[in-house]
């Protein structure tokens, strides 16, 4: 079952349940998928990696919006954004814990022989490629910086 099919099935369930927040989040996902499909040169649609990146981007947008609303004291606007982020996250694979990410970073540092901040790009590229979709780039970056500094 493709991501688009899963989203459509969830949309039907959300409509029946009259869950407007969930429906709004699912419509945003569907819209983003359709837009990406039209921009994509591939006739097969989006690859699994592209779908993951798309979902992560949507979650990140929602969380950033929620943070801005909270800063401005608008909890009434932040709450729906957070709920939408949760709905979209349900389509992402299980996220890795910081300890798991840290262990993976240690392995890559040992394997590549990285010794300082000048090797950060090499380490980041390898780690991000290996655990794509299962960890936030900001978290990976902070762990790599801490380990290499």
From TrEMBL:
Coiled-coil spans are none
Q: Name one Pfam family in it.
A: YqeY
Per the record, the domain of life is Bacteria
InterPro entries associated with the record: Asn/Gln_tRNA_amidoTrase-B-like, GatB_Yqey_C_2, YqeY/Aim41, YqeY/Aim41_N
Gene3D superfamilies, sorted: 1.10.10.410, Uncharacterised protein YqeY/AIM41 PF09424, N-terminal domain
Q: What is this protein called?
A: GatB/YqeY domain-containing protein
- Write down the species: Autumnicola musiva
